[in-house]
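Supplementary Methods S3. Input chains for the assembly prediction are listed below.
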Amino acid sequence: MRKIFSVILLIIICWGIILSLYKIPFGIPKTKVGEYYLNKGKEETGAANIVTSVVLNYRGFDTLGEVTVLFIAAIGLGAVLATLKKKGKRKVEQASLILYTGCRFLFPLILLFGAYVFIHGHLTPGGGFQGGAIIASAFVLVYLGCRGKRINEVSSKTTESLGGLIFIVIGLIGLAIGGHYFLSNFLPKGELNTLFSAGIIPIIYIAIGFKVGSELAGVIDNLFEES
Amino acid sequence: MSFLHNYIYYIGAFGLIFIGLFIILVKHNLIKVIIGISILETGVNLFLIAVGYISKGTAPIFSKPGINANQMVDPVPQALVLTAIVIGVAVLAMALSLAIRLYKHYGTLDLRKIKEQRW
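Predicted structure tokens for the full assembly:
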């Protein structure tokens, strides 16, 4: 009964979506604002990666909301799981020597790769969120391979708060002296396609990378604690 | 055939969206419902990226000197999808934590056996 009902509902939704969307063509330019960003973004922001300049310069306020949503989700997860009763120490079986040593060998390399991704966010595909996710995956590796090791909660929270604080402070400085909007650029733009270019964008992405990495590592820590 | 060739990304995206909706509506296990939400998000993201595609366009990065702005794809949907992926991770983490809470409280993840969740 429920399956038939669901299939009928899906067919109705499908029909509605096809009716409203079948006129959208594929493969031709559609928005004026995208063309503006492509033509002017290079000169206005100094970043070679236009997606980065859209995320952090033209729509920087949106990114602040995004970071806030991630922060609230991490805090909410901690609050939902913190009221459960702790069972005390459970027995952990140590991994074999090869796995343990391999994880300890790979951990700094993955951290280095994550740092590379978020430092080069204005030049190559990638950025703070992606680099933060890679850093969090290094912590997943440690949690799976080296049982019993935990992240230091105080330093993780400190890193997270500092990242958020740097983002907001630089945004407010830009609002005060750079221009008339949040996160406007107040540093020299430099030469296109070099590491020290694009003004405040690399600094913001480094802050976001640290924040997202420590936040996701904290989420993983909370989930592992309960499982 | 040319219709399929032109619209294959839209068809794939809506296929993922409907698979996700079907899982959400039909499945009884809470973890499977959360997986359905994740598949639905993937479909929506793929649809947004496909809308921004321009034929024979490259990624919107000025990595080489000779590259021209009018052969690049639209950067705005990509920036929006970047936001949407992060929000999706937040939703997934929150849903999994609530699932852990429900399992600790009721001892099951079957939605038919949880009284308040039945429909």
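The mean pLDDT of chain A is 83. Chain A touches chain B through 60 residues (CB under 8 Å).
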